[in-house]
Amino acid sequence: MQPDVFDTPGKPDASTVVRIELRNEDLLEALGVLAPAVPSRSTIPILECVLLESDGSQLVLSATDLEIFVTRTLPIETEPFRLAVPARRLLETLRAIDEEMLLVQVDPDAVELRTSRGRYRIAARGQEEFPSRPDLEGGVELESETEPLARAMETVLFAASRDDLRPALNGVLWEVHPEEVRLVATDSHRLVRLVSSGLIRNPQGATLQAIIPERAMGLLEKMLRRSDSDTDTCRIRLGASQASFQWSGTLFTTRLIQESYPNYEAVIPVEWQRRVRFDREAFLRALKRVSLYASTQAHQVRLHLEPQWIRLEAEDIDRSSSAEERLPAELEGDPLVIGFNARYLQEALQHLESPVVVMECTHANRAAVLKPQQTEGPQEEEVLMLVMPVMLSGY
C-alpha cells in the first residue's frame, strides 16, 4: 500500500493526525455489529454517527439510539483521539472498497480512508454531543454461553407484544433464581415460558426480575448469532434500570422497562382433560396448507381432536373456498373441537424443537398448552407455549 500517493493541499498539521493501519474486513465487521443501533433517521443528527475513539491501547467504536448503546473494541494500539462520523457513509464506503488493507487517518475535522489507489474523506460531527456511555456500576452479574443464550432468546421473542398501550408486555421478562432462570413473553393471545437450570450461571445466587425490551433483545439475539465462537462466554449485568451483555469485544447495553409484569402464572392451566400427541413437522405442513383457505380477517382454523386423528378445517366464506386435512395423533380424553388463529399456532410450533409435540387443553374456550414430548432423564430446560383459542364461527 502507498498511503502517501496523494499530497492534499491544506491538509491538517501532521502533529494532530492519527494514522491507523488495519484490515478493511476488521473495520467493516465492527461497523456491521454497530449498524442496527444507528437510527436511519433521527431528529438528533449525532445519533446517525458512530463514535471512534482510542485511549492508546485499543480502538473503540460506539453507536446508540438512546435506548440501546453498543460498543465494539478492536485491539489496535494508536494515539488517543475521539471523533464522531456519519455511520452510513463510513459503512457504505468500506463495503465498496475492494482492497484488503486500509490506512485510516484521523484529524480533528475528519476521518480519511486511504488505499493504494484512492482516498475517501468523511467530515466529522461534534463528538462532544455524542451521548455518554451508560453507567454499568452495580447490579447482578451472570454468565452464559452465546449460542444457547441466543437460542433461548429466539424461543420466546416472537410472543412479545408490540402494543405500546401495554408497555410491560413490550419486553421479555427475566426471572432469575439461584438455581434457574425463566424467560417469559406474552401479548395476551399467546405466552411462552422457558425455564432453564443450565442456561445461566448465577455465582451470587441472586434473585431478581428484569424486563428487557423486545426490540433490544431481538437485536441482541442477532448479534450473539454473529459471535466468532459458539462457546464464547457472555457476561451479563442486570441493574436497576440498565442491562448489559459483553462478549468477544462487544458491549451491548439497553434500558429496562420500568413496569410490573402481570402474573402470567395465573393464566397457565394447572390441569388438563384432553391431551393429544402428534408429529410436529407433519402438523405444521398440514396447518400451512389448510390455513391458506382460512378467512383473511380471522385466520381461524378448527382442530377436531379425535381418538386417532387430528382433523384440520378452514373456510373462507367470502371466497367460497374451504380445506380439510387429517393426520395421525394420540388422544387421551374425550373428543373436542377447538379453534385457533392459524398464525399464532404456527409460530408456537415453529419454536418448539421436539419432533413430537403434546397439546393439553380442557375446553374449547380455555387456553391450550403446547410442550415438547419429554424424554427420559433429568431435564435442564422446559418450554411451554400457551395459545388462546378463538370463538368458533358456524360454517
What does this structure look like?
This protein has 395 residues and is α+β, with helices and mostly antiparallel strands. The chain has three domains: 14-129, Roll (DNA Polymerase III, Chain A, domain 2); 140-264, DNA Polymerase III, subunit A, domain 2 (DNA Polymerase III, Chain A, domain 2); 268-387, Roll (DNA Polymerase III, Chain A, domain 2). It is 17% helix and 38% strand. It has helices at 24-34, 87-96, 146-157, 214-225, 280-291, 342-350, and strands spanning 18-23, 49-54, 59-64, 68-74, 81-86, 101-107, 110-114, 119-123, 140-145, 171-176, 181-186, 190-196, 208-213, 233-238, 242-247, 250-255, 274-279, 300-305, 309-316, 321-328, 330-332, 336-341, 356-361, 368-372, 381-387. The longest helix has 12 residues, at 146-157. The radius of gyration is 26 Å and the shape is elongated.
Radius of gyration: 26 Å
Tally of domains: 3
Question: How confident overall, as mean pLDDT?
Answer: 91
Q: Indicate the percent of residues in helices.
A: 10-25%
Span between N and C termini?
A: 74 Å
CATH superfamily of the largest domain: DNA Polymerase III, subunit A, domain 2
CATH class of the largest domain: Alpha Beta
What's the multimeric state?
single chain
Structural class: alpha+beta
Summarize the structure.
The chain folds into 3 domains: 14-129, DNA Polymerase III, subunit A, domain 2 (DNA Polymerase III, Chain A, domain 2, Roll); 140-264, Roll (DNA Polymerase III, Chain A, domain 2), CATH 3.10.150; 268-387, Roll (DNA Polymerase III, Chain A, domain 2), CATH 3.10.150.
